[in-house]
Amino acid sequence: MNTENFEILAKRSKKVIYKDGDTVLKVFDENYSKADILNEALNQARIEETGLPVPKLLEVSKIDGKWAIRLEYIEGKTLTQLMDENPEKIDEYIDLFVEIQKEIFAKQAPLLNKIKDKFNRKISASKFDATVRYELHTRLDAMKDHKKICHGDFSPSNIIITPDGSHFILDWSHVTQGNAAADAARAYMLFCLKGKNEIAEKYLSAFCKKTDTAKQYVQRWMPIVAATQSVKGKEEEQAFLERWVNVVDYE
């Protein structure tokens, strides 16, 4: 099998996503970590078992010497597309976005990696100096331990709305279990990184209202999520993320 005749849905760093009939094929570069690919497939299977509306995992295979994950194709538009096409409905879409996030938080998957373990590793791997890293580790350790499913890349581009109005949640490669406020801080940050500050504020207000969470509590996670994001090494993001990390309070 080769991918030449498949429709390309998206090109990402180190992977290409194709449509093959009624399936989606995510093909990874040759040098992509095999462990990360198998972990992504395992995460998808574990989330599928919770009953959340997600595409079904169909197989993990090799195509032209490259590892690939095959998933069910979901027909519809992303929430990002709908927001762009219907700006007058932005509040309605933000409400839906938060309701879907609450749906995720209501589930548990005890075998998922813990968000604090992942964040501690990323803070240690960041390029911030030892004093800043110590402050971030200390702040993270002080946060409450929860067992909610945290998507890890919760953005409107990962929500598909089907023609009948139902929704599916995509891309579980970064999922962990832990504190919901951490996932909210990360979602807020993703809006800001795309320059969508107004939508970011609407999202944070809606999240805090619908979950009865203090804004200050979500904001305490923001230097932490910024530090974890900095490890991706995207040059265009670094100045923004450094500003967020540098708002940590020093004793």
Ordered list of secondary-structure elements with their pairings:
Layout: E1 7-12, E2 15-20, E3 23-28, H1 34-49, E4 57-63, E5 66-72, E6 77-78, H2 79-85, H3 90-105, H4 115-125, H5 130-142, E7 148-150, E8 159-161, E9 167-169, E10 176-178, H6 180-193, H7 197-211, H8 215-219, H9 222-230, H10 235-245
Antiparallel strand pairs: 1-2, 2-3, 3-5, 4-5, 6-8, 7-10, 8-9
Helix pairs in contact: 3-7, 4-5, 6-7, 9-10
Shape: globular
- Helix and strand pattern: EEEHEEEHHHHEEEEHHHHH
Strand content: 15-25%
Largest sheet entry: 5 strands, antiparallel
List unreliable stretches of 5+ residues. none
The percent of residues in helical segments reads 40-55%
CA-atom Rg in angstroms:
18 Å
- Class derived from helix and strand content: alpha+beta
The helix count comes to: 10
Strand order within the widest sheet?
Answer: 1-2-3-5-4
Average of the residue pLDDT scores: 95
Termini separation comes to 60 Å
Number of strands: 10
Explain what you see:
With 251 residues, the chain is α+β, with helices and mostly antiparallel strands. The protein is built from ten helices and ten strands. The chain has helices at 34-49, 79-85, 90-105, 115-125, 130-142, 180-193, 197-211, 215-219, 222-230, 235-245; strands spanning 7-12, 15-20, 23-28, 57-63, 66-72, 77-78, 148-150, 159-161, 167-169, 176-178. It has a five-stranded antiparallel β-sheet with strand order 1-2-3-5-4, with helices on one face. A hairpin with a 2-residue loop joins strand 2 (15-20) and strand 3. It is globular, with a radius of gyration of 18 Å. The model has no long low-confidence stretch (mean pLDDT 95).
